[in-house]
Amino acid sequence: MRTLQKTVFALCLTLTAAFAQAGALDAISTGDASAGVKEALAKGADYAVASLGKDGGFLGNSKVKIPLPGYLDKAEKGLRMFGMGKQADQLIETMNHAAEQAVAEAKPILSDSIKKMSVQDAKGILTGGEDSVTQYFKRTSTEQLTAKFMPIVKASTQKLDLAGQYNAFAGKAASSGLIDQKDADLDGYVTQKAMDGLFAMIAEEEKKLRANPLGAGSSLLKKVFGAL
Questions:
Q1: Are 32 and 220 in contact (CB under 8 A)?
Q2: Which of these ranges, 79-88, 130-139, 185-194, has the smallest mean pLDDT?
Q3: CA–CA dist 177, 181 (Å, integer)
Q4: Higher confidence at residue 182 or residue 112?
Q5: Could you give the 3-state DSSP secondary structure of residue 69?
Q6: CB of 221 within 8 A of CB of 39?
Q7: DSSP of 31-58, one letter per residue?
Q8: How many domains does the chain divide into?
Q9: Does residue 4 fall inside a structural domain?
Q10: Percent of the residues in the chain that have a pLDDT greater than 90, as a whole number
Q11: Of 2, 65, 103, 158, which one is least surrounded by beta carbons within 10 A?
């Protein structure tokens, strides 16, 4: 009986909180809500590009640093034992620097996604959960980012002879089921990891905003996200 009472009480609290949130959001004009979400999107994009699109942005950040692909990451110690440490380091540095150069060019694409945001999108972001800003960018910009990043990554990896050797070697490993097929192409692997890192940093900034809207440094963000 007590368990049932606790469950009912918890449900009532949840519904009360939901109604309170709905009321707070209803008190915000559509214009303010849209403007607030756009500002949040821009804040996340600015933070991610500034953090990663620079020398050491990926290489010096353990959260997003790109490792050797697939089983090569696990075999790295063995490679170093066989005197391939320099090649492994060079490959890791090249991949991460390529990602840094690619992300530095992401801002126009992210800005375009923000401009295209509809009122319905804004409502979905406000009520869609803790990572809805990040998911919006993923949904609206992944294809464009891939097209933008790939040539930049290719230009960087082509400077390293190991890139071609890796693709040939990893291609055989993929056909044998030792690594995922998506990791068998170095350029594709780095491009995907660059986007993963970009979205991870956007998510990090979104988490900060939602946890502490009063510290966002903007009255509009405080008003809109404070209502959540």
A1: yes
A2: 79-88
A3: 8
A4: 112
A5: coil
A6: yes
A7: HHHHHHHHHHHHHHHHHHHHHHSSTTTT
A8: 1
A9: no
A10: 34
A11: 2
For residue 151, tell me if it sits in a domain: yes
**What are the C-alpha distances in Å from 143 to residues 39, 136, 154, 195?**
23, 13, 17, 10
Q: Which pLDDT does position 100 carry in this prediction?
A: 96
Which among 113, 102, 117, 133 has a CA at the least distance from the CA of 40?
133
Q: Is residue 35 part of a domain?
A: yes
Q: How many other β-carbons are positioned within 10 Å of the β-carbon of residue 156?
A: 21
Region 189-207: what's the mean pLDDT? 94
**Average pLDDT of every residue of the chain:** 76
Whether the per-residue pLDDT at 66 is higher than 60: the answer is yes
Q: Amino acid identity, residue 169? A: F
| Domain region containing 129 | 30-226
Token readout for 78 is 């063995």
Cβ neighbours for 207, distance < 8 A, ≥ 6 positions apart: 130, 131
Pairwise pLDDT comparison (196 vs 94), residue with the higher score: 196
Q: What gap in Å lies between CA 177 and CA 124, rounded to an integer?
A: 40
Q: pTM score, two decimals? A: 0.76
Helix axes 119-127, 30-52, angle to 10 degrees: 70
Secondary structure letter of residue 28 according to DSSP: S
How many distinct helices (H) and strands (E) make up the chain?
Answer: 11, 0
User: What pLDDT sits at residue 173?
Assistant: 52
CA distances from 64 to 21, 59, 220 (A): 34, 8, 31
In a domain, 113, yes or no: yes
